[in-house]
DNA sequence: CGCATATTCAACCACATGGTTGAATTACAA
DNA sequence: TTGTAATTCAACCATGTGGTTGAATATGCG
């Protein structure tokens, strides 16, 4: 019904791009929950919550065990690990240390591989960015 | 034009949920690129690519330096670090070692915090999931 | 100046998303 | 059997997304 032939990681990142769904994952990190339990904290219809759960399921982020008339959901961390590893590729860009060297190399690289002959002004040194950690901080997500 | 009052991490994950944009980030990991350079490998109009770039910019994943008539883009890793750290919260769920203990604790937890009295069947032990690493593997993304 | 280059803007389109409501399905319980 | 509880399904709606095309806006160049 959704994401017909997208790359798996597309569906994972997409699933994570919604605060309701991230909150559900957060909840599931503390233990399994039924559909109604997952829906309860969210100000929306059960049907809407059910759709969110299906998106999470479609991304492989949760598994569901049907138990009579209730559906028990539990976290399936594999895709989260995949996404984490995907991001790890870029780690060198935020863990500085070699930042100056990196940047010089990137400049050289850009110079070399530039398909045309644009760019010839100096680059601004990027302000080192502060990153607020931990999921589900404060109000939403 | 997009993401009017969403949580910042919403826009980051959303930006990452598209293969075209992930490929652009990949490209920018090797050095700065102009808009046309970023657009070139992708089978779409310049205008479409320009929109993708704006999504990345809106998520804070890239910065743009206007240089005459060309726009030079460069990677801004901060939000990637944020997303990475967000995912790190769930790390304990995929780095096993304490997996059995974790699971037992989660069961207890679920037992304790369950708002209703559902759940009373045994849990399946989750198959340890294999996660394919590194970004931009194979054909797309 | 006049033209080509780099990029965006605006209007448009098909389809996805996230929500609603009401009915259908299935299971438990009296 | 009858009713109620848990969940999905189907239809619908407003809005967002990702793409197109053609015009607009600057900038660089001869």
CATH superfamily of chain A: Winged helix-like DNA-binding domain superfamily/Winged helix DNA-binding domain
Number of helical segments with 4 or more residues of chain A: 7
- Radius of gyration based on Cα positions of chain A: 21 Å
Quickly count the domains of chain A.
1
Q: Kindly identify the CATH topology of chain A.
A: Arc Repressor Mutant, subunit A
Task: Using the alpha-carbon principal axes, give the shape of chain A.
Answer: elongated
Oligomer category = homodimer
CATH architecture of chain A: Orthogonal Bundle
The average pLDDT score of chain A comes to 78
Cα-to-Cα separation, first versus last residue of chain A: 25 Å
Number of strands of chain A: 3
Biggest sheet record of chain A: 3 strands, antiparallel
Estimated helix fraction of chain A = 40-55%
Q: Biggest chain pair contact, residues each? A: A-B, 70 and 72 residues
Low-confidence segments of chain A, given as residue ranges, are 112-134, 136-141
Structural class of chain A: mainly alpha
